[in-house]
Design brief:
Layout lengths: L7 H17 L10 H20 L4 H27 L5 H25 L9
Helix pairs in contact: 1-2, 1-4, 2-3, 3-4
């Protein structure tokens, strides 16, 4: 088991959630149940899966949750790019958020390699 609160990747993921919520407050109200909701859920999923995985008994199981967090990070980046293309946000606002998400992705990938270098959790 790992103390997720001490993991820098979890801390950065939590900061990203706050930034995403702040950004999505500016989205059109008719997007509340569309892109706003999807972007928030994806960002929240990153931090939640890191925390949930940290409570696992084995490193391989932790890595499985980190992989889910990684996929949520990619979803977050894509949703931010969609928001930019739809002109819900300016690129100079979303670019730093994308950079933060990509940093979380790199950190998560590093942890996956550390805890399950062969990605045994993917094998059946």
């Amino acid at each position: 088991m790992h103390n997720y609160k001490e993991l820098k990747v979890w801390q950065k993921a939590m900061d990203l959630v706050v930034e995403i919520y702040s950004l999505t407050r500016t989205f059109p109200k008719d997007e509340l149940f569309g892109l706003t909701n999807q972007l928030r859920r994806a960002a929240v999923s990153i931090a939640l899966n890191i925390a949930e995985g940290a409570g696992c008994e084995s490193d391989v199981e932790f890595a499985r949750f980190l992989d889910i967090a990684l996929r949520s990070t990619y979803e977050t980046v894509t949703a931010l790019q969609i928001a930019t293309r739809l002109k819900y946000s300016k690129q100079e606002i979303t670019d730093p958020l994308i950079a933060n998400a990509e940093e979380v992705a790199r950190m998560t990938t590093g942890l996956i390699r550390k805890f399950a270098p062969s990605r045994k959790y993917l094998q059946k």
